[in-house]
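Hey L., structure's done. Input below.
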Amino acid sequence: MSNRFFKPSIIPVLLAWSAITAGIAFAQEAKPKKNDEKSYMPVVIDKGFETIHKEDAAQKEQVLKQQRQLLEERYDLRDGPAEAKASGGRKALQEGVRVKLPQDVTWQQLAEMTPEEIKTRNLFPMGFRPLPHVKHAVGGMVFPEHQIKAMLDLEKRDLARFDVAFDLPGHLMPEFPPPIFLTSRPDLGDVSQGKVLSIKNYYQLLHGKLTPVQLEGMRLLLTPFPQQQFNATEDRKVLEPSLGVTCLDCHVNGHTNAAFHQNPDTRPQQSRFRLDTVSLRGMYNQQIHGAKRSLRSVEDFTEFEQRTAYFDGDHVIAAKKGVHLPDRSSQVSMMAQMQNLFDFPPAPKLDEFGRLKPEMASKLELKGQEVFFGKGRCAECHPAPFYLDNKMHDLHLGRFYETEVIADQRNIPDGPIKTFTLRGIKDSPPFHHDGRLLTLDDSVEFYNIVLRLKLTDDEKQALVAFLRCL
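Output:
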């Protein structure tokens, strides 16, 4: 073959090869470094499941050890029960301030300081800062041991992760299982019969108490669908391929078991915050949903959870994991109707306007009500009778501390967070959107400092007593 035939035929090949090699070189040069900030989760996983499982399982003990150390440095984790009980009557509430103070300062002294002084002297208690996820760089849903055991017993479905475990002691968590109160049948009281609702027993427990539409909504709320860490892919965090998780795996019995994950709507990963499961009680009277998302209906929230929040807010990888896309009219509406039936627990000391009945309340509780609607300024965001205003509020916590990276979390200030209802609040520890406040006493101390209320010790004690009446 002569050169005059060879050269024209090879030139396109050489040009193509040159473009390919240049593209590879560019891709290698532009490839983000490990710590670069990203919006998307990785779609293609370059390790097999066996390798991922082996590496994660080997690191688990050290991960949990570091989280225990962080918690013990921030909090008094002792079991200190109060005389007051949760609504189901099976568990004592915890009492006392558990957040630890910096050395050489008292709560009274801290309350007298300006935010600028607290920040300059680095005196804002670490327990008042954002609480990192137990494995913040990875995140994902983490379930308490009693929920894991219940699902294993009822459904032979395993919610235990091989890379992490729940980090808070059981006495600092909600009553389990929580009672179920229905807006449609207040005459029945608790309809749970002391059981954890599951796909195995919901029909037996609720047949004759719910309509067919509501029963179908409950079935869907109890049906497992794939989630970022619970699915069949190589980067799952459960030993066996999984059908997924259910809505009520976190919102057990329409309430909460303190399961946590991370908010789906902040990037990069380092700046996301831990998200404690909120109760579904009283959903019928709430107009916005999600700590940051401000979704305008429970139907929107239900769709968002299934389509993106289940996958750390990344719709790109949802299809790979097995996303469930519920139909708005035949599925979402039924799930929403069922969610809207979960009622608050009875509050016998409150009247129709959400105020204490003087003949039933103690002097301490009445004093707490006075503080709540007066000096404490609580009612400005939590007005009676449902003790929420359906708005977003920013506490501007950046006034009190410098942002830094702790346990793989960049603890930026919270920004606007929706108001959560205080009705039945005693049943939902830990408190704040990320669970950083372990008791109601912690919550009162937190707002006393942040809002500069200058409450006395007697006023703080009275306020806690009132909150337990709601």
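Strands lie at 81-85, 92-94, 260-262, 274-276, 392-393, 405-406, 409-410, 417-418. The chain has two domains: 81-132+347-467, 134-339.

-- N.
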